[in-house]
Amino acid sequence: MASWSAIARRFRVPLGFALAAFFLWLAKPTVKSMLIGSALVIPGLAIRAFASGHVQKNEQLATGGPYAYTRNPLYLGSLILAVGFALAARSGWIAAGIIVIFFAVYLPVIRAEEAFLNDRFPHFQDYVRQVPRLLPRLSAFRSGSDGFSWDLYWKHHEYDAALGSIALMTALAAKLHWALH
After folding, report:
1. Domains within the chain, CATH numbers bracketed
2. What is the full DSSP assignment across the chain?
3. pLDDT digit string, tens, across residues 99-133
4. I need a labelling partner for 61 at 20 to 30 A (CA). Which of 34, 79, 113, 122 fits?
């Protein structure tokens, strides 16, 4: 039988798409809430983009760029993005759902990924001792890793997060427009 973290890993992205319709149904956006939400969505996307251009999944332990400040910049970016969308939607139910999803889905996935990295890379524990799991440290971990790679960004299809965010904000704007007219 598969572990919960393995199950959560498989369904976290499809779950996001399935919850988009529910999100739109619950959302009560205003111009102000969408501007405030966008002020977090944009940095969340930027963090995810920057992180994706530094990670060579399963090949090398990423310790440079945003990985010098947090072990999980992709998840940090996703969390910031989700909070931005919750603020844009102005719904306590959405905010509560994000908290539940983070603890029920993302935290187990993070733990499972870290167990994999620990088994795969002998120096992972040294990295763990110096770089926090999610909330970034103020000074960078010293690493010798390469800089940002657009090839990695495109390889990981990180542009999908930007396109999805644009689509969701457009849908919120359409809902707001429809509500006002």
Report:
1. 22-180 (1.20.120)
2. ---HHHHHHHHHHHHHHHHHHHHHHH----HHHHHHHHHHHHHHHHHHHHHHTT--TTTS---SGGGGT-S-HHHHHHHHHHHHHHHHHT-HHHHHHHHHHIIIIIHHHHHHHHHHHHHH-TTHHHHHHHS-SSSPPSSPPP-------HHHHHHTTTHHHHHHHHHHHHHHHHHHHHHH-
3. 998 888 889 989 999 999 999 999 999 999 999 99
4. 79
